[in-house]
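sanity check this fold:
=====
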Amino acid sequence: MNRIVSALVAAFILSLSGTAVQAADTTLRISLQLPLKSHLGQNLELFKEEVEKASNGEIAVEIYDSAQLYKDKEVPAAVGSGAIEMGVASLTRYVGDIPAVDIFYMPFLFNTEEKVRAAVAPDSPVRAPLDEAIKGTGSTVLWWQAYGGAILLSQEAPISTPADLEGKKVRVFGKTLGDFVTAAGGAPTLISGSEQYLAYQRGTVDVGMTGVSGVKSRKLWEVMDVITQTNHADIEFIVVVNTEFWESLPAQHREWIQAAAMTAENDVRDRVAEIESEATAAAEENGMSVYAPTDEEIAAWKAVAQPVYDSYLENAGDLGKQIMDAAQSL
């Protein structure tokens, strides 16, 4: 019943939006799970500005933030089915159809900015096959949104080594990250980004996992005390458009949208380090402590990670092996 009511509410909101922009030839409605003030939300605002300016009002962009229409995990199906034109989802939300997408959650594989940039370039042998595979779900990737490195959140003390994770319930946002937690002795719990604040507040989990920018946009300092900068995975979001809708657009509209998408992708990629630095400073200003593991402690994390690589190669098939080889050759 709750799902039916939610679907009806979403449909009603979307029907209202359709009357608000009658002057536009094309309307792009985008679902986002994060608040508009988050850096992904601001990135969508940049895209909206670029598209509407270039098209002189022929294309209107509407952003539905804070999961008011769809949760992160619902976006791939909503966009793929055409229920909404566009959406933002964590790349790992496609792992059910394309296990290879979790290459970015291989522990410490993309451990420098140079490697990340090389891997996420549109024509790279890591990203390009993933974009192509996602087309099989009914969606076309328009651009990737950098979210930064994965960190751990805790109360009172940092999670400096795998020993500190043993027996603890840990919020994760992907299967492979769950495998990493299991390998380290913890108990993974899959919780969407929009629900993690309550999970920490209620004690559903003992340890959090997210990007540091999410600490700022969701004010997680109200429910957690310590950030441990493990940076054990690279978090990527993607902006997708329904393929049938996309291919039905006039060529000029697609050209304007693609140009705006590239501007948005380059902007967020170039600023992600600054965004993470500002978010870390905000967390400290609001009472959190920040811990950077030593080289020895990072080595201990890496030592428990091999089963995660083995599981990935076993489950991700030929595409996974192809992408892993490409990633390791960067």
Remarks:
- Residues 17-22 have pLDDT under 50 and may be disordered.
- Residues 57 and 105 are 40 Å apart (CA to CA).
- DSSP finds 13 helices and ten strands in the chain.
